[in-house]
Amino acid sequence: MRLPAACVLLLGCLDHEPGTSLGTYAVTGALQTQTCGADMQAEDPWDFDVRLSRDGHTVFWLQAASPALSGVVDGSGNVTFTTSELFPLTDADGGGPYCAVIRSDTFHAALGTDATPATFSGDITYHYDLDDGSACGGLLYGQFDSVPCDVTYNLTAKRTAP
Question: How far apart are CA 83 and CA 103, in angstroms?
Fold first, then answer.
């Protein structure tokens, strides 16, 4: 009997949205730059949904399976979100050289000064670089022509649900 109750509590946590909801937005990205080479298949256009919420001067970027990102909004309604993730391609313990790529994401958004923006615009850059100590050699073939490299999109968004 304890397991179902715990599952119900967990599901409640998964739906948690910090702060006050600003709504769900349909976002379209237009590819601006892609310096990673022909093997990097960047979508253009790129369409996705995101939920935004706000608690004071903190805005939260919420997507289905990803952890919430947060950024501080300025008096003009501009906010920047940053995050990075390490993608190990090989493990040095496996007998070969260590190889890992770090992806750093920077998203700038112009939300404006309305309490609940109907639209927003911005840009997002994905910067790829080798982790310190990486010796990747030919392991990047089929994924990147060169590293470091960047993929940048201009984004426009419209609120689709409260």
Answer: 8
**Who's near 104: CB < 8 A, 6+ residues apart?**
82, 83, 84, 126, 127, 129
Half-sphere exposure of 144 (CA within 13 A, CB side): 22
Residue that has been written with the tokens 């253009």 in this structure: 44
C-alpha dihedral, 132 to 137 to 138 to 141, nearest 10°? 40
CB 38 within 8 A of CB 144: no
> Is 151 part of any domain?
yes
Does residue 117 form part of some domain?
yes
pLDDT digits (tens, 9 = 90+) for 74-125: 999 999 999 999 999 887 676 778 999 999 999 999 999 999 999 999 999 9
Domain that includes residue 27, residue range:
17-161
The one-character DSSP state at 10 is H
Mean pLDDT of the chain: 86
Percentage of the chain beyond pLDDT 90 is: 65
